[in-house]
Amino acid sequence: MLTLAQHNVFRFIQDFIYQHSYAPTTAEIAEGIGIQSRGVVHRYLKALADAEYIELVPQRKRNIRIIKQESTDLSLPILGKIAAGQPIEAVRDNETVEVTSLFMSPGRYALRVQGDSMLDEGIHDGDIIICQEAKYAENGQIVVALVDEESATLKRLQRNPDNSITLFPANSNHQPQVYSSDRVRIQGIFVGLVRISGR
């Protein structure tokens, strides 16, 4: 069974070959998954080869050949709609929700929420949020922001004309936070969440 990191590398290789019709180099893989060490990439490739997901062809720069053709996508069936208000008729849908890309795409990571400042966005204390690594975000996006290189917070981003940044909570019990732009570093963008029942 592949580790999460190995799966991310395999998925990147699959996507790269699909887009370009040739295999990526180790440098392209390192850049694509957001690391600098080609040695680490080589270890991932060896693990994938040992697991018989890929073959490493000797004497070639683009030496990766995929040999495991089964899909790595994981999906769950959407069986219908469920009422959170008045009951509705249960009608089975023929849809699925693809969960692999939510959890296991390159650059994804998870954080556990502490506090209620984003409650009105449906993000509760104890939820596990899924984020995409990013150094820049657009106005209005919910971001993981590092303030003064010390404390990370989840807020909605607003870049102001005076070069300051406002981090907006989604709870009227909390006040917006305004900082000069040099005090805030974007670390990720919120893409989804997981809530475990009974926490």
Describe the structure.
This protein is of the alpha+beta class. The protein folds into three domains: 63 residues, Orthogonal Bundle (Arc Repressor Mutant, subunit A); 33 residues, no CATH class; 88 residues, Ribbon (Umud Fragment, subunit A). It has four helices and eleven strands; from the N terminus they run αααββββαβββββββ. The strands form three sheets. The protein has a seven-stranded antiparallel beta sheet with strand order 5-6-11-7-8-9-10. Strands 1-2 form a two-stranded antiparallel ribbon. Strand 7 and strand 8 form a beta hairpin. The longest helix is centred in the first third of the chain and has 17 residues. The protein is elongated.
Radius of gyration: 21 Å
The level 1 CATH classification of the largest domain is Mainly Beta
In CATH, the homologous superfamily of the largest domain goes by the name Umud Fragment, subunit A
Name the CATH architecture of the largest domain: Ribbon
Structural category: alpha+beta
Determine the number of helices (DSSP H or I, runs of at least 4 residues).
4
Number of strands: 11
Query: What's the SSE pattern?
Result: HHHEEEEHEEEEEEE
Average residue pLDDT: 83
- Most strands sheet: 7 strands, antiparallel
Measured as a percent range, the helix fraction is 10-25%
Report the sheet-strand fraction. 25-35%
Major beta sheet, strand line-up: 5-6-11-7-8-9-10
For this structure, the CATH topology of the largest domain is Umud Fragment, subunit A
Overall structural domain count: 3
